[in-house]
Each structure stands twice: as C-alpha cells, then as structure tokens.
Design brief:
three-stranded antiparallel β-sheet; 3 helices; globular
Length: about 70
C-alpha cells in the first residue's frame, strides 16, 4: 500500500477521505487469516520503523498459529 501511495497519491488521498482519515499507507499492520484463509481480524504495530513493525506483527500472528497477510 505504501508503494501505491507513492505512485497514485490522489487515489490514496481519496480513499483516506472515504475512510475518514483512518488510512495509514505504511507497513506495520497485517490481516489475520485462519486455516481456511478467511480474514478473522487484523493487527497493527507501531514503535519502530514501519518495516520492523510489520515483521513483529507477522511474528505475533504466526506465533498464535494463524496466517499473517501483509498484502504482498
């Protein structure tokens, strides 16, 4: 999403308006999927660089025996 924001800032700005300012197009959050690949939640982490935040989010989800989906 961060790369998309760089390439299409007007689109991301419009989506952020629709999301009432709650869209943050940087790494650090991942979807949580169950064993059937259904989305059952999401987790976001902040406190270090965005890339490290994302690694921590993935590690936490996987430690719980679930699948992390960072959108790649």
């Amino acid at each position: 999403m961060a790369a998309d924001a760089e390439q299409r800032p007007a689109f991301i700005g419009a989506v952020n308006t629709l999301a009432q300012g709650r869209l943050v197009p940087v790494p650090g959050g991942v979807l949580i999927r169950d064993g059937d690949a259904r989305i059952i939640g999401a987790v976001g982490i902040s406190g270090d660089t965005s890339d490290i935040d994302e690694l921590c989010a993935v590690a936490g989800v996987e430690a719980a025996g679930l699948q992390a989906d960072n959108g790649l």
